[in-house]
Amino acid sequence: MPKPSLAEDRDAVEQALGRSLIAAGKLDERSLERARRVGSGNRQGLARVLPKLGLVSERDLAEALARQAGVPLVSERNFPALPLLQDRVSIRFLKESRVLPLAETAETLVLAMADPFDRFAIDAMRLAAGKAIESQVAVQAELEAAIDRLYAEGDAAAQVADDGDADDSVEYDIEQLQDMASEAPVIRLVNRLIEQAVEAGASDIHLEPRDAGLRVRVSVDGALRDIDSPPDRYRAAFISRIKILARLNIAQRQMPQDGRIKMVVRGIPVDLRVATLPTVHGESVVLRILDRDAVALDFGTLGIGGRDLDDWLGVLERPHGLVLVTGPTGSGKTTTLYTSLLRLSTPDKKIITVEDPVEYQLPDIVQSEVKPQIGLTFAQLLRALLRNAPDIMLVGEIRDPETAKTAIEFALTGHLVLSTVHTNSAAASVPRLLDMGVEEYLLASTLNGVAGQRLVRTLCTKCREPYAASPEMILRLGLRRYSEAPEMLLYRARGCAACGGSGYLGRTSIIETLTVKEPIRRLILDRADAGALQAAAVADGMRTLHDNGMEKAVAGLTSIEEVLQATRDA
C-alpha cells in the first residue's frame, strides 16, 4: 500500500515535489515559480505542468514522484499483455486520469499512475474495481502509449511495432500508416515533442533511428541533449506524422525530402523546416525551429556593440556596394543580416530579399524564396529582381559564379547588396569570390567590407565558477591585451538546474569586420591570399574573432574554452 503521504493535501504534496526536484538538481526556483503560475492559471497541478513546459523530463518527474510517494517506478516491461477491467472503466477515463491497471488479486488492484497523489483517480478506481488500490508510478508517455495499445488500438499499434526499423525490404501499408499517424496518441506525442523543444529554446530537433528505438535529441545553444523518445511501437507512425505535417510523401523513404511545417505552439506562431535522410535503420529527420518571437533582431541582444558595432555600421551604411557576412553553418549570419536590414529600412528605401528559404518574415521588406524543385534559382530570381527597382537587396548566399557575378553587377549599378559566403574568416571570403570568377578590379571597387562571425555559449550566471588565470595562461593567450587587473579573474562552466547541467545559458556573437580601404583594395587587385589580407586588416586596426572572444571571456560572459573552440579554424 502507498505510504500515508498520499493523503496529504495537494498544496503540501506540490511543495514537497518542488523541493525534491530542486534538491535533485532537476529544477530551479525560478522555473518552479513559473510552473506554479501556469498551473494556477489553467488549474493543473505541477505533475502535469512541469513536463508540458519542458522544465522537467517525464522520466525525472516520475522518479521524483515515486521517491516522494515511496512506491515503485515501473517500466513498460511490467505492463500487462491484455487489458484489465475493460468492462468497468472507459479509455477516456484512463487517459484523462493517466492510470493503467497492471494486475489484480482477489483483494487488490495494482495501478500504474503518472501522478500517485491523484486522490480522485485512486478513489474512482477503488469504486470501479471494488478492491483496495496499490499505486505505482509510470512515465507518462509510456503509460499513455500502453493505454492506447491495450484499450483502443492494439492491432494497429502492433502493426506499427511489427514494421520494426523501416527496412526498405518491408512492404508498408501506406493507408494504414497514414491512419496511425492521424490517431490521437501519435498526434499527442509529436505535439508534445515540438512543445518541449520550443519551451527549451531549442533550435533543432533530431530524430535518429537506431537498431532498436528512436533517439530524440534537441539542440540548445548549439549543443545536443537527449530527451524522452516515443515508444518504439510508434516509431514509424511518429515519423509519418511529421512527414504528413510537412506535406512530404510518406511512401518515399529511399530519397531525402525537404518540407516545412507552420503551427502555433502555446499561442506562438512557429515555422519548422523539415529534412529527411534515409539511413540503414530507417529515416532520420531534422526539424529546424524558426521561432520569430525567440529571435531578437537587435544588435545589442546579439552581442554586437561598442567598437564592433561602429565598425560594422561603417561598412553597412555606405550608399552602395557589396557587404558580406561569413562563417560556418549555424554561426548567426542570417540573424545578423536581418538585423542589419531592419537598421537600413526607412520609408524612402525599397528592400527586397532572395532567400533559401525565408527564415523570418520582416516588416516593410519584400521577401522572395528560391524554389529549386521548379528551377527557380538565386540567379534567376536576381535577374528578375532588378525590374522591381530595389535600393537594397539581400541575397541569402553567394554559392556559385553566376550569383556572385550578378551580385557584383548590382553593386556596381548603385545598389547596396548584402549576402553571405561560407568561409572561416572575413579575409578568406575575398579569395573565395575570386575563385568563383569575379574579376579582381570589380571586387576591389564594389566590396565595402566583410564580417566574420561565430556564436559562443554564454556562461550561466547562477553557477559559473570563478578562478584566477595563471601567469602561464595569461602569457600564452595574450590576455594582458584585454585586462590590466593585477589578478585576472576568469570563469568556467559548472552546471546547475537552471542551465540543464551544461554550465551555459544562451549564446552571443563574436565578430570581426574587415573594412575595405585602399591597402586592402591593392591586395585584392594583386590576388593576395587570405593570410596577407588578414595581416593588412589587423595592421589597419581590425579586431579579430579571437580578440572579440577573449574580451568577452575576460568580462565573464563566456569561457576561454568556448572561445578557443569557436575560433580554432579562424
What is the assigned CATH homologous superfamily of the largest domain? P-loop containing nucleotide triphosphate hydrolases
Supply the helix-strand structural class: alpha/beta
Please count the helical segments.
23
Average of per-residue pLDDT values? 85
Computed over alpha carbons, the radius of gyration is 28 Å
Verbal overview:
This protein is of the alpha/beta class and 570 residues long. The chain has 4 domains: 69 residues, Ribonucleotide Reductase Protein R1, domain 1 (Orthogonal Bundle), CATH 1.10.40.70; 68 residues, GMP Synthetase, Chain A, domain 3 (2-Layer Sandwich); 115 residues, Beta-Lactamase (2-Layer Sandwich); 197 residues, P-loop containing nucleotide triphosphate hydrolases (Rossmann fold, 3-Layer(aba) Sandwich), CATH 3.40.50. Helix content is 39%, strand content 22%. It is built from 23 helices and 19 strands. A 7-stranded mixed β-sheet has the order 13-12-14-15-11-16-19, with helices on both faces. A 6-stranded antiparallel β-sheet has the order 7-6-5-10-9-8. α22 packs antiparallel against α23. The longest helix has 16 residues. The protein is elongated and about 95 Å long. The N terminus is likely disordered.
In short:
This protein is of the alpha/beta class and 570 residues long. The chain is 39% helix and 22% strand.
